[in-house]
């Protein structure tokens, strides 16, 4: 089963990246992003890409510039996630064969992202938009466009967000914080996957 969850490993270090990725995939989370404001992020991405192969989609978060997209592609990353809607970053990502997930908060930003070629939309920060805001946006967005709630959506609110039209979620501090053990990450991942499965069972 492929779950529409993105693990956000902000602050992870290369020496813990592979074990953490293994724990996430074992739990059932197979899309992983390393925000570029983490220590040596491209190294972490590279070692996870090599270790995980086709078992996971690895990429970067907080992608703000075209040159970062190019470096991401060089180390084998497959997904570029941004906190903002930057048409140049979106186009560069798609030109290099990467998925592009820009952050948007308004219909104007959402349609600008889609016009630039975005793979999907990241509602960010989701806590400011809220399920009611997403529901209103969903009324005008193309149904086939995947929309993930990131920043304020968690296991206790998956069902509410799904009812509002969210297709998936990005999980940051609810899943991983710098310095936590791999076992802690595995435990949190299992809890998140269980909550996701319950919310999407119907």
Automatic annotation (TrEMBL):
The keyword Lyase applies. The keyword Lyase applies. Pfam families: Aldolase. It comes from the Bacteria. Keywords: Carbohydrate metabolism, Lyase. GO terms for molecular function: lyase activity. CDD domains: KDPG_aldolase. Pathway: Carbohydrate acid metabolism. InterPro entries: Aldlse_KDPG_KHG, Aldolase_TIM. Homotrimer. Belongs to the KHG/KDPG aldolase family. PANTHER family: 2-DEHYDRO-3-DEOXY-6-PHOSPHOGALACTONATE ALDOLASE-RELATED, 2-KETO-3-DEOXY-6-PHOSPHOGLUCONATE ALDOLASE. This is 2-keto-3-deoxy-phosphogalactonate aldolase. It comes from Pseudoroseicyclus aestuarii.
